[in-house]
Design a protein that fits this description.
Radius of gyration: 15 Å
Order of helices and strands: EHEHEHEHEE
Number of domains: 1
Number of helices: 4
CATH topology: Rossmann fold
Largest sheet: 6 strands, mixed
CATH architecture: 3-Layer(aba) Sandwich
Structural class: alpha/beta
Strand order of the largest sheet: 3-2-4-1-5-6
Low-confidence stretches: none
CATH superfamily: Phosphoglycerate mutase-like
Strand content: 15-25%
């Protein structure tokens, strides 16, 4: 199973937190990353999105259908998000569009077995894969991408 973690793009500062929108720079970040992800995501990839405005606007840049999941909002824990994805039992790849700190905590949990305070920068995507081996599951980092890698 592949799991792709995509942090929302740069958003405005303000309250209420759930209604914060992307800045013009954030829209560009989301468009760049969304274009690459749209070309690269495996067929049948499920896309789960936090219920906040900034994550939905980031997801919209992908141009695919996605499901809003209340359980993966800003206050979620890494294990709650992992449960929502069905990792590692699901056969379908999944992308989660969400927030710090749980994105970094989830990445560290998957890759090291411990929940640590890792940072995933705005609009960056971390692609983590798991495959079955004779001696157990192998989990590895497939890619880390930033919108700055892509030109308009």
């Amino acid at each position: 199973m592949d799991i792709i973690l995509w942090r929302h793009a740069q958003a405005e500062v303000g309250e209420p937190d759930e209604g914060r929108e992307l800045t013009p720079h954030g829209r560009k970040q989301a468009a760049r990353m969304g274009a690459w992800l749209d070309r690269s995501l495996p067929d049948g990839c499920r896309i789960l999105c936090s219920p906040t405005m900034r994550t939905q606007q980031t997801a919209d840049a992908l141009g695919r259908k996605y499901k809003i999941v209340d359980a993966i909002g800003p206050q979620a824990s890494a294990t709650e998000v992992l449960d929502a994805t069905g990792w590692p039992a699901s056969r379908r790849p999944v992308m989660v569009i969400g927030h710090q700190p749980w994105l970094g905590e989830l990445a560290s949990l998957l890759l090291t077995g411990e929940e640590q305070s890792w940072t995933i920068r705005k609009s960056n995507a971390w692609w983590i894969a798991s495959r079955e081996r004779v001696d157990g599951n192998e989990i590895f980092l497939k890619a880390v991408l930033a919108p700055e890698f892509f030109i308009d």
